[in-house]
Amino acid sequence: QVQLVESGGGLVQPGGSLRLSCAASGSISSISTMGWYRQAPGKQREWVASFPSGGSTNYADSVKGRFTISRDNAKNTVYLQMNSLKPEDTGVYYCNAVVRSTYNPTPLLMWGQGTQVSVSS
Length: 121
Prior knowledge:
mainly beta, 4-stranded antiparallel beta sheet
């Protein structure tokens, strides 16, 4: 069984910072791309950032220059450092990862349960 668990969400004032973490655990053979999505109230889930294994990072235009995605392959963990937060960054943030488990050679897209980020004064 493989699962992704996010942490680090919360309430922050505009201009503030938060750091999200997402740890993958279980019978993991390898992880390729890891990334973050978010869903604001009443809106569809949107892509925020991604980090392919051995590749370069990519960001949505709305967060470029403010958010930084990083990963620790030894810990199977991806991070999202969010600076200069705006009210429009409010939403539930989900991590995902393309995971190959030890019992299934087919890569599967896995999702975390989400963590709430609220930006408000």
